[in-house]
Specification:
Blueprint lengths: L1 E4 L12 E3 L2 H8 L5 E3 L2 H33 L2 E6 L6 E6 L1 H11 L8 E3 L4 E3 L1 E10 L2 E11 L1
Parallel strand pairs: 4-9
Antiparallel strand pairs: 1-2, 1-3, 5-7, 6-8, 8-9
């Protein structure tokens, strides 16, 4: 029996794969639970059309994400922090401050998509951070921590 997977199934395939399974497995488990649908000729045509349309949308999203990544790479951030007389920061600079500084520059980036290249930033200086813009598209930004 040939089926089209509607979601990832462990040890069988990924979403939108057309796979062959035994009749009982398909009819008694995969199809009733909504994990798959029968791969009839009309379903295969619809599936091919959906994949084609999805690829166009995916290409557009990738293009937009690459533009944002290029713009982010050119951005220089300055983040102020309260420091002691020796240059040590009270606390540390984290992704929240970087996300807020990016919002001020006009970029709406979630802090969960920002990764610091250092473990923790506790001194004044220049640092780098990596921002995940889209699935595998990343941008690296430079930022400077200064004393307020």
């Amino acid at each position: 029996m040939e089926i089209i997977l509607l979601q990832d199934v462990t040890n069988l395939g990924h979403k939108d794969d057309v796979v062959k399974v035994k009749n009982g497995y398909g009819r008694n488990y995969l199809i009733p639970t909504g994990m798959a649908m029968l791969a009839t000729p009309s379903a295969k045509k619809m599936h091919a059309e959906n994949l084609r349309q999805r690829s166009h949308k995916e290409a557009k999203k990738r293009e937009d994400a690459q533009d944002v990544a290029n713009k982010l790479s050119a951005v220089e951030l300055k983040i102020g922090a309260k420091t002691s007389t020796t240059g040590k920061i009270f606390g540390s600079v984290n992704t929240i401050q970087i996300a807020e500084a990016l919002v001020e520059k006009g970029f709406d980036i979630d802090r969960k998509n920002i990764t610091l290249n250092e473990d923790s930033i506790k001194e004044i200086g220049s640092y780098k951070a990596t921002i995940k813009v889209y699935k595998d598209i990343k941008a690296e930004i430079n930022f400077e921590v200064y004393s307020e």
